[in-house]
Amino acid sequence: MVCVFARKTSEPLASLVKQIDEKIGENGKLKSFVVITPKKGEKPADDLKTLAQEAGIQHVPLTVGESPDGPPDYEVAKDADVTILMWKGGKVQVNRAYKGALTADNVRSILNDIPKLLGD
Questions:
Q1: 104 near 110, Cβ under 8 Å?
Q2: For residue 46, how many C-alpha atoms fall within 13 Å in the half-sphere facing its CB?
């Protein structure tokens, strides 16, 4: 499971989600979801719809969270703009937090962690 929590949509986030979506299309064992955790008063639903349409997302649910801190049990970094959680069999394999916009190197690093979830 690859979970992406982000404060807002961005081009690097769209690139990451598109590539995760493609990996799910290649390997049905992989699952993912994205939650936008907006600050109070922000309404990111339209941005999320645009991301889904422009990136052609088919396999990754895109949602808007109710709390800017994310779900309490998920340990989303409160001061991060993007938090990536990956787990397999109930055990967290990857927990990364990024301040500011994701870079191409960040996206590459995140994608390189996905095989940890698919191995036996």
A1: no
A2: 2
| pTM, two decimal places | 0.90
For residue 120, give every residue at least 6 positions away whose Cβ sits within 8 Å of its Cβ, in sequence order, or none: none
Q: What would the pLDDT profile of 29-49 be if each residue is shown by its tens digit?
A: 999 999 998 877 777 788 889
HEC states along 81-116? CEEEEEEECCEEEEEEEECCCCCHHHHHHHHHHCHH
Report, at the CATH architecture level, how domain 2-118 is classified.
3-Layer(aba) Sandwich (3.40)
Q: Which residues contact 98 (CB under 8 A, 6 or more apart)?
A: 80, 81, 82, 83, 84, 106
Tally of CB atoms within 10 A around 20: 25
